[in-house]
## 1
Amino acid sequence: MLGCYPTGVAVMATRDRQGASVGLTCNSFTSVSLSPPLVLWCLALYSPSLPAFLDTPHFSINILSAGQSALSRRFSAPISDRFEGVEHTTGAGGIPLITGCAAYLECRNETRHYVGDHVIFIGHVLRCARSTHKPLVFSEGQYGALA
């Protein structure tokens, strides 16, 4: 049922305790508040990336552009180094910011809530930027772009 609800596609990214970049594809992302600027996203309790996001003071939300569906697939695949060969810069606390995105948000890891089989992360947006690229959209198992 929820597959018919179109969503944007983002890569959440941070660094683990060893300094390695960690990222995953996510479409459970939304705005919570404008003042202060807060956003939320959800991560499954069984995700191998969970410890890195629980430990980090900062994370980025890289809103993928229409031409980045391959990155969406890459960051949802079970590979050891998802950032290998992915062009990116660094933001607050060294968090990865993927090049070519429609937008990105640099967030302080404000709080988290355990609900069912997921953790809801709430981030305080410290900085954000957008490009002229159209965002990537996902619906009914297909990638697309807004007209």
## 2
Amino acid sequence: MELIVTIVLTALILGSLLFVLSRSTTPNYRPSRPKVADLLQKVIEGDATQQAWDLFIGYPILHDPELEEIRQRCITLSEGDEHNSPFPSGIGRFIFNRAGREKVKEIYEDLQKLIASNREF
């Protein structure tokens, strides 16, 4: 009798677990163009957190190729590439120094043009 109760309870628990897992969604990171523009504006003003910046540059953006190109340019600012060294950290609350923030501002302006020219995403 105890064996039957154990099997039934185990089946109920496993069935409940499978049901919950099949109904849950996987977390994803799909930033919109305005959301990225807001992040870049915060970086320029010194209001962005390092965590938000690292999240943005750390995950590829697969749903918007133009936004992925913006992200790649931002990665170059943080990590550098074969032609450019990374920009140093700013003082206090700023992620980048002045020269880095000027580059972020250029990227921000390009993103604003992209948003204005194409409202698709």
